[in-house]
Structures are given as C-alpha cells and as structure tokens.
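WARN  no MSA supplied for this record, continuing single-sequence
INFO  ligand: magnesium ion
INFO  echoing inputs
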Amino acid sequence: MHETAFKPLTVETLPARLGPIAAVAERVGGSPSAWKVREVGDGNLNLVFIVEGEKGAVVVKQALPYVRLVGESWPLPLKRSFFEYHALVRQEKRAPGLVPAIYHFDEGQALTVMEYLSPHIILRRALIQGWQLPRIAEDLGLFMARTLFRGSDLSMEARERKQDLALFADNVELCDITENLVFTDPYFAAEMNRHTPELDPLVKELRADRDLKVEAQKLKHLFAAKAETLVHGDLHTGSVMVTESDTRVIDPEFAFYGPISFDVGMLLANYWMAFFSQKGHEAQGSREEMRAYLLKVIEETWTVFREEFSRLWRTERTGMLYHRSLYEDQGDHLGAEQALNHVLHDIWTEMLGFAGVEIHRRILGLAHNADFEIIDDTGLRAACEAPALTFGRHIAVNRERITSFGELHALARMLD
Ligand code: ADP
Ligand code: MG
Ligand code: MG
Ligand code: MG
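INFO  complex generated
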C-alpha cells in the first residue's frame, strides 16, 4: 500500500485508518471498531471529524483537494493543511494556551489530529445567541499582540524570520482567495458575488465610489507586500471557539507573512457586523445590552492588544528593528516610546482599513456571515447590512483621520 497517496477520510474508514496511529489510539481508547465518528465540518473548505472512544475524544481535520463549499470545480491544494499545522505550532509557542493542542500531523493525507474543544462553541454562534462572553477581549487581544509581535522582525532573529517567511510564502492559493474575495470582488460585478436584493442601490453607489476603490487597492497592496509577521489570516468570529472561561483560536490555514494590522482589522470587523446585526435578532427581546457589550469588546480588544504589544516592545524587542543600541542603551527611553507610537499609529490606521473592506466582502462577496444570513426577512436583513456597509466605507476611506473609539462608537450608533 502507498501510504502517501491522498485519500479523503469517511466516517466509515476513519477508525481503521487512524487506529494504528498511537497518538490517536491512546487518547481515544478502546477498540477502533467501537469508536464513534461524526463529521461536523461547517466551514467552507475542509472535513472535520469528532472521534470518541471509551477514554476520550479527538478532532481530525482533513483538507480536500478542492473547496468544499463549491466542489471539485474549484481546486485548492492540500498544502493548506501544512500551513495550518505550522501556524498552530508557532501560535502555541508565542501565545500559549490559546489554540487547540496538536497530537499528530500527516502531510501526505493533509490531516491534523487535535484536541477536541468541548463544550466550546463557535464564537459567532454564541454572539448570535446573545451571550456576553467575559474573556474574549482579554484573550484575543493577548493572542494577537503575542503572535503578531513575536512573529515579526521586532522580535525574531533575522535569519529565522526570513526562513519562516520563505516557508509560508508558498501559501499562494489561500492568499489569492483573500486578495480577490476581500479586496477586489466586492467592488465590481464578480461572478461569485451575492447580496440581499434590497441593497442594489447602495451596491451601485459603492462600486462607483472612486475613493473607496482606491483605498481598497491600497489595502490590497499592503496585504500582499507588507510581510511584517506571521498572521492568522482568517481571524473572524467563526475561527474562535469559546466557553465562559476559555477561548481558543482555530483554523489558521490562511496563515502567511502579512501586516500586523490584518488580523486585528478582521476580528474587529466581525464584531462590528455582530453589532449591526442586532436589530435582526430582537424578536425575543431587546438586544440593547448586547450592542453595548459588543462595542465594549471592540474597544477592550484593541486596548489589551495595544498594552500587550507595548509591553512586549519594552521587554522583548530583540529583533533587528528599532534596536536597543539606538535607544535604551543610550539612555533614550523616550526615543523607543516615540518609535512605538509610530508603529502603533500605522497598525491603527491600517486596522481600520482592513476592517472596512472585511465588512464589505462579508455582505457583497462570496462568503457571508451567519449574523446577517439567519435574518430571513430580507428587508430587515438589508436594514442591518446597509448601515454596516456605510460604516465600512467611512472607516476605510477616513482611516487616517479617525483617532478614537469615542468617534467610532458614535458613528456606529448614529448609523444603526
Ligand atoms: P474550515 O477550515 O473548513 O473552516 P474549521 O477548522 O473552521 O474548518 O472547522 C470547522 C468546524 O469544525 C468549526 O466551526 C467547529 O465547529 C468544528 N471544529 C474545528 N476544530 C475543532 C476542535 N478542535 N474542537 C471542536 N470542534 C472543532
Ligand atoms: Mg473555519
Ligand atoms: Mg493549548
Ligand atoms: Mg478554514
């Protein structure tokens, strides 16, 4: 038998195929023929199985040579699983305890065996249900600051970082998805786009918006050319699993070296979309508390990110950039603070831009968010989506001139 020939797992074949792997058998326990296997993948791209036995459970994620959502007509290389595995290993090292533990990786089969997160649920589902998770701002603010700082030239040894950049540079096809779906498709009549019909007039306006289209391409340029750090690349609320007391980030198959600001912008955009979706979820009662909670989470996430990034700047700035010999070693602590202000300012203005276009692509492009999608009444859905689009346009185009959450919260409230 050729061990390396790729073959998708099925619920039926999984026990016999993974039974011989000690890392799996020891955790699941009992005879593989007695394992209970379920396929639970709800994502757009891959297979995800939960495997339960008498001792415990694991999750098995396997890539397919095509996009699951679309089918074999849209091929996508298996190597995304390799990038996901390597990103998870780095994230665990840089921000311990915030990703699932990895038990086994098989490159030929494009499969990863990992910790079964239970009773965790997907953050987006929790927010739709109106849960106010107490830990997400702190945990995800720290996750972003630590992974993004520690993967950059502010922290890493230059040779090691360049080698890592070369490794991830091959994740071309997944970057290509983002480059097209986020930065370009929403702004013309791309084939795979769809939107709520009531949005037609606004969509026409946005596609004719010269300032917005120039801004979106400037952001695309940053995304493609500013290889600052290893980013998660798909850090929306569907890539986070939560309980009241635990937060884990999953699904980094889009990982590549890009701008520090990208993950931050995508995550905050998804919270802003949750905010604008609230009036679609008010059948069971007012969501006013949820609105206030979401705005608080947005601000706190940024504050935690900024404070932790600043702490790491002061204590772990061991890379080639802004070297201490120029600042602290000469007694010039203020110089290091000035440089930090420049770096944080760029992250802030880019973050607002990425957030703006992420909002657009989730309403106008191929991949939509359940926050809006589960609102059946299209008139009501459009009444939620239109203010989100207008908000996204405003923050993308005015990102150099917006300086505070006071302004952003007021803008969100005014448009909602
Ligand atoms: P895709 O890349 O296809 O989006 P994900 O990694 O996001 O796949 O996983 C799809 C779904 O599988 C998640 O939304 C979640 O419900 C479930 N899942 C993934 N990883 C785990 C895990 N470690 N523990 C429990 N459930 C998981
Ligand atoms: Mg996913
Ligand atoms: Mg962990
Ligand atoms: Mg994925």
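The chain has two domains: 14-115, 121-415.
INFO  checksum written, moving to next record
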